[in-house]
Amino acid sequence: MFRSAKSELRWTCETVEHLQQQLYWRAAKLLEKSSALNARFVPRSVSSAVYYSTDRNGIDVQLYLQLSAMINIEERTPSKYPVPTLRHSVDKFVKYARPLQSDNEYHRTLSVSDFTLLIANEFLEGGEGEKLQNILEEKAMKMENWLTPWFIDETYLKSRNRLAAGTNTAMMFPKWNFTGQEGQIDVTAKIIHAAAKFYRKIMNNELTQEKLGRFMLDMRQYNHLFGSTRIPCHEKDIIKYGGTLNPQPRHIVIIRNGHLFSLSVFDSNGRIRSINQLKNELNTVIYPKSEEAVEFPVSMLTAADRDVWADAYKSLKELNPGSFKAVEDSLFVLCLDREANGFYGVSELDLQAMQCLHGGGSQNNSCNRWFDKTLQFIIGSDEFCGVNFEHSSIDAAPVATMMDYICDHFDLDSFGGEDVTGELAPTNALSFTVPQDFQEVIMKTKRKFDEIANDIEVKVLTFDRFGKAFPRHYGISPDGLTQLAMQLAYYRIHRKQPPTNQATTLRQFLDGRTGTVRLPNFYTSMFTYEMTDAEERPNDRDLVHMMQVATQQHKNDKLQTINGMSMDRHLLGLLLVAKELGQATPEIFTCAAYKKMMHYTILSTQVCHFSTYLGTRHFLPMCCAPSEYDGYNVCYNPQEEEMHFAVATYKSCSKTFSSYRFVRSS
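Structure for Carn_acyltransf domain-containing protein, as requested:
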């Protein structure tokens, strides 16, 4: 497969600049002819060219979409999420299936998609595929975003797996200089104060409009950040969105040693409590009443499988309606942790990551969480703090933006303010009545979750030889280079290509969430093969060319996804249309190639700054558990002169037992 394509690759590498220039001037001519785009042509770089096409009012989409990098026109407000053509997505399916298959498997795949859509052309022309496509297009015409409700349901709410060390994600603050109870109280008050100010900016519509190039991004996710909670139910959970609460909440919930407290942050005049007032409540009420750990903490059940929690939730809420309402309606949960024990041979950052991700087990701080809450702040016993967020209602970028904002306040030490004088609800301990049968459920949940927490390894590392500035200087995408390094690391260890899901934003569309940038592509697979298994290793010049083409292809694929041409999301839509119609599952979704492609052995996410999607201003590592038992989860945060990584694996898996080995292999 690889050797026969080598001459083609060399030709592609040597002529890529020429092809880009052709594309550039072709776009100029199309613009002159187009009455739909009234703009002055301004020459710019064409390195962001998007190499695919399908007609939109007579103009190639590949050229239309790259206009943001080439011409100066009005900013675009978020639009409806589109439906790609059927041929586009199934052609993509065949191309992405190829690097993951042997020759025999590939030929069998072609027999499935030689329809270039379903068996023997029926899926594409008047058959099953066309019917599903037409229904999906009709649905898209009636909705702002046909994808997002389905995506949230299928990816999150219908899943019966636990949230903790599952889809919940952790992010860490930089190391702050504090120790002991006094230091913990001081940092806690400052985080509460800064977070409340960020919440007020959201409610007052004072956030800066975020953009990706000339595209304005949908800002509605910020309304879900504060006050939202996921409610456990059988078959499918529901989300209680904070932005819909009326009146808006003024309180937060603090957990310490399994004890829960309701603490008012805003007074009756809408002013934020001063740092001294917050410290006083912590010192005089919360700490004295939470010295001993709760034996049967209800919060532990939020770490259980969803059906287990749904069973208990209904009964426990009937017994404790006020306490549940206080938690669910709170702006956020803040967890005051004790020192973690039982961890050996791990760095401070690794320990911080595990505490933020799952709490370190029931003997440490896992009981000190409410994993259903969209936003939880984790306050360690000394120097380390972080966030755990529930993913169904929000993505990482708004959380990172909020954390950057809080870090700015710590950098400037801008926590002044007089004591508020308006009416304040008293700080109250939330009591829970727990019958004996649910006490047993709590103990079972502790034992099961302890096994899970002990099995997850997280390694947080910094690559300090260069950051995103170095590859940019040579015209190479930093993100593409990072993804290529992951592909190479996996291939060096496992000697096969990894089905990879890289999450990227779809927020240039109304109510947009995330799309999948899929790897490997043909060129990344060739690069990893030639670097590792080639009988005769190519010379450095050829390897550089391969790297350039592979990273450029990844960049093009990413731009396609950002612009609504995601193969994965489109195929998901077609599959769900078939399910709604009660039809048999189309064969494309049952073939071996599709199943292999959907078993993600690398799940990767970049920690993004709100305006550039190129990293945060501060050191904010992020981590999440692998989506598959034999997989890796890799989160990375590119800075100008270094790159930060957090890699998570399951230690008990014989294939992927070492996160550190994966990082070293790249």
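The radius of gyration is 26 Å.
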